[in-house]
Specification:
Blueprint lengths: L6 E14 L3 E13 L9 E11 L5 E10 L11 E6 L11 E14 L2 E3 L3 E13 L8 E3 L5 E8 L5 E4 L8 E7 L3 E20 L5 E22 L1 E4 L2 E11 L5 E2 L8 E5 L4 E11 L2 E4 L2 E4 L1 E13 L10 E4 L4 E3 L11 E13 L4 E15 L6
Parallel strand pairs: 7-14, 18-26
Antiparallel strand pairs: 1-2, 2-6, 3-4, 4-5, 6-8, 8-12, 9-13, 10-11, 10-13, 13-14, 15-20, 16-17, 16-19, 19-24, 20-21, 22-23, 22-25, 25-26
Length: 381
């Protein structure tokens, strides 16, 4: 063992963090210091064995050593080959090196699956953090980032559509993120930030093999993005609607005929009996939302108004042609049955309002006739 002379006084461990494009972050550790008389701060977890190899005669005269570092249980830290150290005879040498450095490079990969999908589809956003280390001897001596100290404290995900989420790490996959999001139509870029903390370690050996250590915490945010995310446009397909009628009135004996809620494209009504004809919108096929050929939502359609376009009407106070509210009936009457059981046309144009599942509202118009067949009066029957 080398004889005890001076010890190392004070460890200066500098930790710097920085990032670069492409989701890459760095943690650098730099250590340096001055020699001074030994004090009580020695830590005996390690010791070192120095073997003199040669001396170099040029001024200043230097000695070449092979240094093997051991833990207190006798296990070699650098078993494959000793560390070569040059010391000057005019000043004590440091056990491993006067200055040492370690570097951790962290890479953050971000992906979205599927990248292109119909609007309204559930996507999976993933991120993975990986690291590369450049250290001194076996992660034990000099300067390095303590590997098992690395933690992702949380993930921040900007989904690119105005939605930002803070996601805690999963205990089963501490360096991976997997979360879901529903994208509407358009193009997006998702940005993921990993908030990472850890510790950096610096240590020196005196020529007597006595180590001095220090641990410095650090924090770094690493950000990367995944672009090219697309939500295919949404098509709002209209409903298929036909006009229907629900007649109502009062028979001569005072029996009321109420209007039903359903409505019919073909109605039958007694000859000469006044009729209040309520107009209905019969939805044969409801509107849908479609994106990329896939139906992603439905709709609900209602009648908001209609235009009465005319037809045979023998009522004394017949309703004129024009615009009517949805719940306003047409006053109509048919006094003569048509031959061969033919029907009177009641021509109307419907205005309907369709509300889709995402809140989009569209208005459509449908024109068609309601067929009214006149039967002989109820009195004759």
């Amino acid at each position: 063992m080398a004889s005890a002379a001076d010890a190392y006084d004070g460890i200066d461990v500098q930790v710097e963090t920085w990032t670069s494009d492409g989701g890459r972050g760095y943690v650098g550790v730099q250590t340096a210091g001055q020699w001074a008389p030994p004090d009580t701060r020695a830590c005996l977890r390690y010791y070192s064995s120095w073997r003199h190899i040669a001396w170099i005669g040029t001024e200043p005269i230097r000695d070449e050593w092979f240094v093997t570092v051991f833990t207190c249980d006798g296990s070699a830290v650098n078993p494959l080959e000793p560390t070569m150290v040059l010391t000057s005879r005019t000043r004590p040498g440091i056990g491993v090196r006067r200055e040492a450095s370690g570097l951790l490079r962290l890479d953050l990969g971000v992906a979205v699956e599927p990248a292109i999908a119909p609007a309204g589809s559930v996507r999976t956003v993933t991120a993975a953090l990986s690291g590369s280390w450049w250290d001194a001897i076996g992660d034990e001596i000099s300067a390095y980032v303590i590997r098992n100290s690395l933690r992702v404290r949380r993930w921040t995900v900007d989904f690119g559509d105005g939605t930002v989420a803070s996601v805690p790490p999963e205990p089963t996959m501490p360096f991976r993120l997997a979360t879901t999001h529903v994208y509407g139509p358009g193009s997006f870029e998702v940005i993921v930030t990993a908030h990472v903390t850890g510790q950096a370690y610096g240590a020196f050996f005196s020529p007597a093999g006595i180590p001095y250590e220090d641990v410095i915490p650090f924090a770094i945010d690493i950000t990367n993005a995944a672009a090219g995310i697309s939500g295919l446009p949404i098509e709002y397909l209209p409903p298929v609607v036909v006009p229907g009628g629900s007649p109502s009135g009062t028979l001569p004996g005072g029996v009321a005929i109420p209007a039903d809620a359903a409505g019919h494209t073909q109605i039958w009504w007694p000859r000469g009996l006044p009729c209040d004809l309520f107009i209905r919108a019969l939805v044969e096929e409801e509107g849908v939302m479609r994106s990329g050929g896939v139906v992603i939502g439905g709709a609900t359609t209602r009648l908001v108004s209609y235009r009465y376009l005319g037809g045979g009407n023998g009522a004394s106070r017949a309703s004129p042609q024009g615009e009517y509210e949805a719940d306003e009936p047409i006053r109509i009457q048919w006094n003569t049955p048509l031959p061969d059981k033919r029907s009177y046309p009641v021509r109307v144009q419907l205005t309907v309002e369709t509300t889709y599942d995402d809140g989009t509202v569209r208005t459509f118009e449908f024109s068609r006739s309601i067929a009214a067949t006149v039967v002989f009066s109820a009195i004759s029957h």
